[in-house]
Amino acid sequence: MRSIRIFTQMTKANLKALMSFKIDFLVSFFAGLLSQTIGILFLSVLFMNIPSVAGWNVYQIGILYGYIFFAEGILTLSFQGTFGLTNQVRNGTLDQYLLRPLPISTQIYGQRTNLAGLGTSMTGLTVIVYSILKLDMVLPIWKFILLIVSLILGAVIRVNINFAFNSISVWLEGASGIGGTVYSLQELAKYPIDIYPRAFQVMLLSLFPFAAISYVPTAVILDKKESLFFIILPIVTVVIVILRKIIFGLALKAYEGAGN
Amino acid sequence: MKSFWRRYSGFARCAMEKKLAYRNAFIIGWMSNLAGILVSIFLWRVLFLEHSSIQGYNWDQMILYALIVAMLNATLSFRTEMNLSEKILDGSIVSDLTKPIDFQNMSFFQALGESAIEGGISICIISVLAFLLTDLGVYLTLVNTLLFIVSLILAFLLKFCFSYISGLICFYTSNGYGVVYLRQVITDVFSGALMPLTFFPAWFQKLSGVLPFQASVYLPTQIFLGRISDIEMLYTLLLQLGWVIVMWIFAKLFFSIAVKKITIHGG
From the CB of residue A252, how many other CB atoms can be counted at a distance below 10 Å? Predict the structure, then answer.
């Protein structure tokens, strides 16, 4: 509870700082919208030339895109501090968080707010809603709840993946790029994982569980998998949160600080 | 000519050494490109199981297209452009302006030095992938390869102009990332980096035909894939050369106007 209050306070302070540069505020919001246009363009141009990919049509794949955009947007919007971890280890500025009587992970979460994320996640939601309308689907109430729950759990997974892999940079003496490489793996989850070899499918549901964010809920909503398949999502969420806690705990022990 | 080379080659050498010092970062960065390449390989693999050719491309041609685009994208990267915009935004460009050199030439040689390393690594990775995935040998005839190299050099010059111009826009705005994003969307779409231009609707193909961007990605790929006839070859290369000259001069003019925006405090 206290963590949430602190996080809200930090976000408020960040927003005030952002608001003082009004033009930049708008530019980053639109940059967020823009950054996803390439992906959507690729999808629509591709489907002008082919009818389906592994039995999925353009709107069905659109939902996968939407889930990935939404989770990425939430990460960028409110939890961008997890990206900064690598730099903080390199510069030794992580020290200041260790000294305060507040939860360290909360401080890292609330460190930065980036409005580009709002543009990205809104794009994600729009793409999902538009696709569902175009598919002429009537969602029964349980699927609607499932949609909302999976969006939230997806964002939780996304933030924790980022946090966990950026924590690993402590052992790599601040070698950046690991975060970026993992980040780019989400591209794989924008398509039905049936197109990948079995090893990749397993990897995308376990070690780098991006497919749990997009493929698992979408396949259930579209009746491509039985509803029991959905169970993977909460399991992955719990596992990744626990793993993240363990990795971050170990990372803090290994962190050597800025000297003195 | 000799003094010109002596004056500017130092910048290229310097940029190269800097890049080499951070080679691990670059190689790790390359792994992120691999994810994108993997997606397109698997996506096209599934599609080519169902279709024998899509818009006149077969599996080999499609994969080679995607790989050449990836190679071009990794050379003269995002970083080059950000360097310039950061220089403008934090004001350190002033120290370059006091040197008795041409700023555009200097930036070009710095980009050349960085790209020599980036390009070298990229060509190695891409060649291995191309060799494993496609019947590469068919496309590597002597004449074809030479023409491709000429076309690549022209494409590189053009890519430099685009990055340089978008970097210069930072004289007018303080949001470097926003400008670079926008530039990326425009060039990715119109250059054919997203997908071969023939996949787009006809009106779009007409539009991109009259814009300079296709000369930086699409034309080199078409030369490599042997999709340009002998008669059109000269025209294609001249078109690339023409755009390089136009964009280079435009960049010079733009700089001379934009540089007046500098406000120097103190002194």
Answer: 15
Enumerate the residues of chain B whose CB falls inside 8 A of the CB of residue A180.
Answer: 28-29, 32
pLDDT digits (tens, 9 = 90+) for A186-239: 889 999 999 999 999 999 999 899 999 999 999 999 999 988 999 999 999 999
For residue A237, give every residue at least 6 positions away whose Cβ sits within 8 Å of its Cβ, in sequence order, or none: A153, A156, A157, A212
Percent helix / strand / coil, chain A, rounded to 5? 75, 0, 20
Task: Give me the helices (H) in B134-226, please.
Answer: 142-168, 176-191, 202-210, 218-224
Of the candidates B39, B55, B178, the beta carbon closest to that of A28 is on B178
pTM of the model: 0.87
Nearest by CB to A177, from B29, B47, B199: name it: B29
pLDDT per position as a tens digit, B26-40: 777 777 788 888 888
B173 contacts on A by Cβ (under 8 Å) = 27
Residue in A closest to B32 by C-alpha:
A181
**What distance in Å separates residue A48's CA from the closest CA in chain B?**
8
CB contact under 8 A, B25 and A183: no
CA distance to partner chain A, nearest, from residue B184 (Å): 9
Spatial distance between the Cα atoms of A138 and A151, rounded to a whole number of angstroms? 19
As for the ipTM of the complex, it is: 0.83
Contact status of A199 with chain B (Cβ, < 8 Å):
no
Decide: B182 and A33 in contact? Cβ < 8 Å: no
- Reported for A234-239, long-range contacts at CB under 8 A and 24+ positions apart, including other chains, are A234/A153, A236/A157, A236/A205, A236/A206, A236/A209, A236/A212, A237/A153, A237/A156, A237/A157, A237/A212
Report the percent of chain A where pLDDT is more than 70.
94
Length of chain B: 267
CB A138 within 8 A of CB A53: no
Spans of all domains in chain A:
2-254
The verdict on a CB contact (< 8 Å) between A38 and B33 is no
Of the listed ranges A146-150, A154-158, A248-252, the one predicted with least confidence: A248-252
B25: which chain A residues are within 8 Å (Cβ-Cβ)? Answer: 175-177
What pLDDT score does B267 carry? 46
The answer to whether A25 faces chain B, any CB pair under 8 Å, is: no
